[in-house]
Amino acid sequence: MSEKTFPMTLEGKEKLEKELEYLKTEKRAEIIKRIQIARSFGDLSENSEYEAAKDEQAFVEGRVKEVENMLNHAEIIDNGAIDADEVAVGKTVTFQEDDDEPETYQIVGAAEADAFAGKISNESPIAAGLIGHKLGETVAIETPGGVMEVKIIDVK
């Protein structure tokens, strides 16, 4: 069975590498200090500060493993072989539904998706529906809310 790959831009990979470095150095050290201080309060069975610090430690360790896995299986997007007007992971696409305002998103791998920053996952219904289509095409996209027809008006 092959491992899942995580498509991402070079920028996204660098962001994950910085997060991993922060978690391993600063965040771990901060949590260890909090645990030591909480232990000094005595009885650990009723020590909420100790429990909170241990919970945070477990969360951080889980995130470290998750980020390491994504980095170990990262697939850096190279759009050199894709037509300039074709929608693909790593590109920014602007589309419009009927007379609505145009929407612009960069299509990225799930690891770096952030809708509030205008980055949507290649696994999302909208991105999956747009990938492979070209500038000027009208595309029917199956979404949880029903089918939406959009026209691709720009690809960068």
TrEMBL record:
GO terms for molecular function: DNA binding; RNA polymerase binding; translation elongation factor activity. Keywords: Coiled coil, DNA-binding, Elongation factor, Protein biosynthesis, Transcription, Transcription regulation. Residues 7-76 form the Transcription elongation factor GreA/GreB N-terminal domain. InterPro entries: GreA/GreB_C_sf (IPR036953), TF_GreA/GreB_CS (IPR018151), Tscrpt_elong_fac_GreA (IPR006359), Tscrpt_elong_fac_GreA/B (IPR028624), Tscrpt_elong_fac_GreA/B_C (IPR001437), Tscrpt_elong_fac_GreA/B_fam (IPR023459), Tscrpt_elong_fac_GreA/B_N (IPR022691), Tscrpt_elong_fac_GreA/B_N_sf (IPR036805). Residues 13-70 form a coiled coil. GO terms for biological process: DNA-templated transcription elongation; regulation of DNA-templated transcription elongation. Pfam families: GreA_GreB (PF01272), GreA_GreB_N (PF03449). SUPFAM superfamilies: FKBP-like, GreA transcript cleavage protein, N-terminal domain. Residues 84-156 form the Transcription elongation factor GreA/GreB C-terminal domain. Belongs to the GreA/GreB family. Necessary for efficient RNA polymerase transcription elongation past template-encoded arresting sites. The arresting sites in DNA have the property of trapping a certain fraction of elongating RNA polymerases that pass through, resulting in locked ternary complexes. Cleavage of the nascent transcript by cleavage factors such as GreA or GreB allows the resumption of elongation from the new 3'terminus. GreA releases sequences of 2 to 3 nucleotides. This is Transcription elongation factor GreA.
